[in-house]
Amino acid sequence: MDNVSKTYFPRGAGEPVRALEDVSLHIGRGQVHGIVGPSGSGKSTLVRCINLLERPTSGRVTVDGRELTALSSGQVRAARRDIGMIFQHFNLLDSRTAAQNVALPLELAGVGRAERTRRAAELLERVGLGGRAKAHPRQLSGGQKQRVAIARALVTHPSVLLCDEATSALDPETTSSVLDLLRELTADLGLTTVLITHEMDVVTRVADGVTLLADGHVVESGSLAEVAATRGSALASQLVPRPVRALDAADLPAGSRIVTVDLATQDENAVIAELRATGAEVQVAAARVENVHGARVGILDLLVTQPSTHRQEIPA
């Protein structure tokens, strides 16, 4: 996305609403990228601009080297076959079986019945619902419905998968299994997956990169490891919140202080060794540590107490 803006103009009286303003975003092939931000920040508008369900007011959208914003409406419809999409509430047709729901995009594209049936069965098996092909949505759990929706989104062999709050309606255990499936499918099928979510746990669990939106603007964007390791970053504070201290500064024992260790930039073992070399006693007062793509990030608050008989300046 290059300098994408989206403005909604009211039909009658009223002021135009700017949903996105000058948004530029690059997501690498094969990555899982999370888009986060508060309600009303423009997340859903952004994801709908990727497949031009919402055509940007200005700017360019390019997918796999093809500039979608330069295409005609008919060409855009054809290009959307390369972009799958799943939604918070599944959007399944109650009158159709799971297999028929999965096959619907192929039916609309004029694909023959035999190929539709074969492909639907293949995808349902792939998402773990091989035995539920004839079930209707009312006979399926929320997690199973979302798996059917994922299979439907993949039935046209897309290279990009858009997920708009795909786990928001699911319980934590089901959310975990659906996220694992999305990560697995992204790797196995070479997908580029874009996750719209308000849940930072979703991003931490599966994303390679993350973008924070606010009021239609990109506030921060980068790889998950880089963002989590950036001191003072708004995203870092959400990905790895500061630990809750058991002691306030006013409650510290005499001769004690709190030393904070940022694991992104400091080696806690070296800091502790340096403190103990002064004769100080060192204890962990509070900690918040996460593993982000193999990198430990977080904050340790150390309670450092210098014995009264051997007090000296405690290194910061």
TrEMBL record:
GO CC annotation terms, alphabetical: plasma membrane
Q: Does the keyword Cytoplasm apply?
A: no
**What Pfam families would the database entry show?**
ABC_tran (PF00005)
| GO biological process per UniProt | amino acid transport
**InterPro entries reported for this sequence:** AAA+_ATPase (IPR003593), ABC_transporter-like_ATP-bd (IPR003439), ABC_transporter-like_CS (IPR017871), MetN_ABC (IPR041701), MetN_ABC_transporter-like (IPR050086), P-loop_NTPase (IPR027417)
Name the UniProt key words of this record, in alphabetical order.
Amino-acid transport, ATP-binding, Cell membrane, Membrane, Nucleotide-binding, Translocase, Transport
Keyword Membrane assigned: yes
Mention one GO molecular function: ATP hydrolysis activity
The chain positions of domain ABC transporter read 1-240
In terms of PROSITE patterns, this protein maps to:
ABC_TRANSPORTER_1, ABC_TRANSPORTER_2
Question: This protein's superkingdom?
Answer: Bacteria
Provide the family line. Belongs to the ABC transporter superfamily.
Please describe the quaternary structure of this protein: Homodimer. Forms a membrane-associated complex with FtsX.
Q: What does this protein do?
A: Part of the ABC transporter FtsEX involved in cellular division. Has ATPase activity.
What's the protein name? Methionine ABC transporter ATP-binding protein
